Recover the amino acids of this structure.
């Protein structure tokens, strides 16, 4: 910011704003837990801005050179970028959907069975008051909205969080995992090819396989669990016609949902060249 604000002053400002101090602060760093109603406070810079706002913008000099440093994309950011490039290249459009869904829409896809969803009791959320456990119902709703506007055959994807539990003592990947959701009017075989392409684009040596799935929303015999290098990665299949009718879809759809972190664990974005065999045979 161009000025030095005493650490004790900064801590008091953040505490008065409702943040809880975690551990003992030092002159170099302090850890805080933001209140649930301050969803905008997710990064260190967000706290810096709050301190500056309360301390007073008028006290910040306008003629001081602020030190800057270069930054680079994180591994996850590069993987998400690679996913977007790959899917848009094969005709998909990225979608951004709300994290809430309704009890009726939730029935369209339940890969984790009947696990009770998290809900919000608020006057503004009387109908769509459930936190999604999967991205698929939201994407199916987006496809339906496109069909109603005459955009038939649209292929959609989203990379976002789902919400499985409210337990601050468990790791984020267990309670709020990042998933990759795909919805398209393609056949099971075609969408399986897209899933395999995603894996290969992140690591050319990845091996994708499938095994039968018992998810009730799939057409019998046309649903599978997807394995990445032998470990569960997600689900892939054709939605049953009764689900498409309940969602008011004209055309049938095939869906896939994949664990982003599982893909990230296998990442090799810059593979090394290997010497070709001198005597192939």
């Amino acid at each position: 910011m161009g000025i030095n604000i005493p650490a004790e002053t900064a801590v008091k400002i953040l505490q008065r704003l409702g943040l809880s101090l975690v551990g003992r602060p030092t002159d170099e760093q302090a850890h805080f837990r933001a209140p649930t109603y301050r969803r905008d406070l997710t990064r260190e810079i967000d706290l810096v801005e709050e301190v500056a706002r309360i301390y007073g913008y008028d006290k910040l000099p306008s003629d001081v050179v602020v030190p800057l440093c270069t930054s680079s994309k994180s591994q996850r950011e590069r993987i998400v970028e690679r996913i977007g490039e790959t899917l848009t290249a094969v005709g998909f459009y990225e979608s951004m959907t709300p994290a809430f869904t309704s009890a009726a829409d939730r029935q369209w896809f339940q890969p984790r069975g009947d696990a009770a969803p998290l809900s919000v009791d608020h006057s503004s959320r009387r109908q769509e008051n459930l936190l999604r456990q999967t991205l698929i119902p939201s994407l199916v709703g987006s496809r339906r909205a496109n069909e109603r506007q005459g955009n038939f055959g649209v292929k959609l994807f989203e990379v976002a969080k789902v919400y499985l539990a409210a337990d601050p003592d468990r790791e984020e990947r267990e309670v709020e995992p990042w998933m990759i959701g795909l919805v398209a009017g393609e056949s099971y075989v075609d969408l399986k090819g897209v899933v395999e392409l995603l894996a290969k684009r992140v690591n050319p040596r990845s091996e994708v396989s499938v095994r039968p799935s018992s998810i009730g929303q799939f057409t019998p015999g046309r649903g599978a669990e997807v394995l990445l290098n032998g470990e569960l990665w997600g689900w892939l299949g054709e939605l049953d016609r009764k689900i498409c009718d309940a969602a008011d879809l004209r055309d049938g759809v095939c869906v896939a949902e994949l664990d982003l972190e599982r893909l990230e664990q296998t990442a090799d974005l810059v593979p090394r060249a290997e010497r070709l065999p001198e005597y192939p045979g």
